[in-house]
Amino acid sequence: MTEKVKRQTVKTIVTLVLIIGGILVAIPFIWMILSSFKPDAEILEIPPTIIPKHVTFQHYIDLFQQLDFGIYLKNTLILVVFGFVGMFFNAMAGYAFAKFNFRGREKFFYLILATMMIPGQVTMIPVYLILNQMGLTNTMAGIILPGLVAAFSIFLFRQFMTTIPTDLIEAARLDGAGEFFIFFRLIVPVAKPIFAVQGILAFIGAWNNFLWPLIIANDESLYPLSVGLQLLQGEHGNEFGLQMAGSAFMVVPIIIIFFIFQKYIVEGFTMSGLK
Amino acid sequence: MAEFFKDLYKNRHPYTFITPAVLLLIVFAILPICIALVISFTDMDLKGLADWSTINFVGFKNYVDLFTDAIFLKSIFNTFFYVVIGVPLVIICSLGVALLLNFGNSFIFKLFRGIYYMPAITNIIAVAVIWGFLYNIDYGLFNYILSLFHIDKVQWLEDPLIAKFSLIILAVWKGIGLNMLIFLAALQGIPKSYYEAAEIDGAKGWQKLIFITIPLLRFATFFVTITTLIGWLQFFEEPFVMTKGGPLNGTVSIALFIYQKGFQDSNFGYAAAGSFVLFIIIIIATLIQFKLRKSDVEY
User: Fold this and answer.
1) Domains parsed from chain A with CATH numbers
2) What domains can you pick out in chain B, each with its CATH number?
3) N or C, which terminus of chain A has less Cβ within 10 Å?
4) How far, in Å, CA of B242 to CA of B236, rounded?
5) Contact (CB<8Å) B129/A207
6) Phi, psi of B42 (to 5 degrees)
7) Which member of A29, A31, A154 has the closest CB to residue B141?
8) In order along chain A (275 residues), what is the average pLDDT of each group of 10 residues?
9) Closest CA–CA distance from residue B95 to any residue of chain A (Å)
10) Please, which residues bridge with residue B57 across strands?
């Protein structure tokens, strides 16, 4: 066997293994999509049909007509918008740590890094008590505030922004530009790659946010999709078609966004210097 | 003094930039850990929430009670069960997938990179709904496939031991994506010249893997091990959404125990004490990791 033939065989085997593994990983998704289009009677059939015999969109219609998925979607989108606001707070902090000299810089930065080590379970109860004291339980603000900024994101912004030449900022200052003008008009465009990565991660994080809405929100009118879906699972335990449609409605948008922006996420990991 | 404020005003911009982030982190991360420490020595509950004067200082009682609490001890056992089986499994699977994906750069490889990452970005409730259906004892896909091979129905989530494995399978499925990307980024950072030099010396494919790739992935492996270990010690979402800790507390983890004591029983002091025990376990595990790494470098 020549070297070239051998290499080709190895590559074929690798591809085959990847395909089999990929199918195994994707089974839950495929099953979710297929089941969501089956009528209730067909879903409980044994043996199960793989491709739906009678395709129905009824479950998706029910999500909005019988259940309140319209409201849940609106709340989730609010969370997403504030996820982006939080990203800008992270970026501003990262920029200040990267490009300014000020008293207490190191101390503040280490304080921020230290928060990364605190496990969520330790802060969960006190944060609830604090929000309760502030009168923010059962409000949108109470859901949004605890997770608005993230130390790791500040760290990544700082890492990226140290590579922006200081001369560029100095030149803008000489032209009389204000600091906020410099940040939004100069820094943000230059730092586009890191904003792309953090933007996608902020979107995914906000879209999937589940624990704080569950703890803080009592009114159904404040539920995002994730908590709404859990309610659906509890109240319609045996209506698997409806459950699968609800899940698909949550999962498919994220997957589409991920496949469109995949390149940036992978670059983001290379950028963070994990070699 | 006036000089100081004038100075501060002149240099106000960096402070303006960091204020939102620093303020939020102080209120929602630094302050809470101080509060948690204080209330872990009290009997704070729902009454105490309304009227602070009913809160009593109880010393180490919560901590002593924890270690005589059969459910807490069980949650420690379960958590170690998850960690000992799950962490190596996640590391091996994600490294394996990364090595396979690193073979090519064509469209098909990029597509599969996306597919293997999909579970990592899927909402945990959606995961619970889908997997709950797959694991369903009567209508689930898994039991149907097994029935084709004449295997009896498996009680995926109804048997305390099998349920632990069912949750591990789910968590591994969800955990591969992120770690695979970290390994992949590290693999693509290895200079090609190393492999070329090895080829000149006549190294075979598997020799290159063992003597070049694996050693050069040491930092990525260390990073993945630490983060995965910390993540699995806080194992929470899977039992929370799939089994609520049941059957017979067979899947309850330390983190879930804390949540249940805190938010279901409103036993805030007791739950806070539990969270510090978890924190200490995490710190010890991390220190052991760093210690092992040190000896690794000297070697």
Assistant:
1) 63-271 (1.10.3720.10)
2) 64-298 (1.10.3720.10)
3) N
4) 10
5) no
6) -125, 175
7) A31
8) 77 89 91 89 80 87 89 94 95 93 90 87 90 91 92 89 89 89 91 87 90 90 91 84 91 89 74 52
9) 13
10) B42
